[in-house]
What does this fold into?
Amino acid sequence: MSERATQTRAASAVQRCIIPECNSAYGVQERIYVCSRCGGPLEIQCRLETCGDADALRKRWAERAGSNDPRDRSGVWRYRELLPFDESVPIVTLMEGNTPLYDAPRSAEYCGLQGLRVKHLGCNPTGSFKDAGMTTAVTQAALLGARTVVCASTGNTAASLAAYAARAGMQCAIIVPQGQITAAKLAQSMDYGAAVLEIEGNFDEAMRLVQELADDASIYLANSINPYRVEGQKTVAFELLQQCGWKLPQHVAVPGGNMGNSSALAKGFDELLRLRLIDRLPRLHVIQAEGSAPVARMFSEMAKNRAAENGSELPDYLAPVEHPQTLATAIKIGSPISWRKSLRGVLRSGGSVLAVSEQEIADAKAIIGRDGIGCEPASATTVAGIRRMIASGDIGRSDSVVAVLTGHVLKDPDYVNRYHHGTLALGSAAPIAGAFANPPERVAAKKSAILESIERRTQSRERMPRAKN
Ligand code: F0G
It folds into this structure.
């Protein structure tokens, strides 16, 4: 790519309404979050033809991984040819991205797959995938001269925004449903100096509230309705393919809450396809928790009417779940803001949206743990969903599959403790009997007692497959 093209990346990008009948375009410097004409969602369109050819891009991205320049070290800004920012822009970064792709043999066996890889976005600086989008959103906020950044959150967006705002020296307010955020996530936001504003009401109410707040010129909204968040998060698709040696997995599974992450991955894969870095799309599967699954419900209705096929038109309206429930609090969302973009991506890829039960999520989380990989409950929907799709024949046993884990295990240790102690329960339902419960044992303070316990466990331990990486 020429120097001149690099300098004018932002100038040639637009924010475009995704509703086909509207298709309105706005400059990238306009501080809007939805289409001013029709209220539809916006996405950023960069001029991909100025990015250079596929081989040159692959080579340049590989070389940058060995450089010490912060733009190259960040697993988001490394792919800056595809971001709507000029080269000279000062970036707000915590060296996000660079997250591992692990082999997960026990989870694979549990699902009935020959092999399974997991991309662990919980290894980001604040412990969740949100950081990949927050670096671009807060960089844009700084460019626009925003004084205060705000978000509604189930906890992770809040922790991430609080950290990036602190890096940028910006004021930050997070709006969270009181009593529904894990202690670890709240602790992070307090530590990073954000104003933690707890409302009586759920996430969907908090989301409505921040959209009202965003009318105020002093406020910059950092939820994934903001297309700059999606721009950062889409780079996960680029990093994943690079880690796969540009060999495309057949399936990618991701949890669904507000549906920003699946929208971003879909956009990332779509751009790779248009740049001919890949020759088709992986099937994108979005997994929700049964008690908070408005999009899965809609998808299964569409499937019944054969509307959920590649190239189908999007419905106009999503019926929300009024009182969403799940112990996977990160995805306790009844009215996801980005459902249209996500569903469009799923349909284009020939993927699916499905829901899994609390029991399935809890057991899947524990089996991922047995691979030595700790994730938060929402992330485990992926393995639970993959297992279902193997059972239904939607995924073949020898297919190549990647599960995207979104948050770190230490985001919700209370859930883990309750699972292993047999006290994990949703509301007044009976506690979940964990298939992989592993509670602590009280032993006498004697060598013989400890050796006896270890011996007993050695004998009862099933032979487990070993991880290759
Ligand atoms: N996994 C984790 C760990 C999350 O925190 C979230 C969303 C999701 C999955 C779902 O991603 O919303 O893009 O579909 N957390 C948001 C928050 C809502 O406020 O932290 P999504």
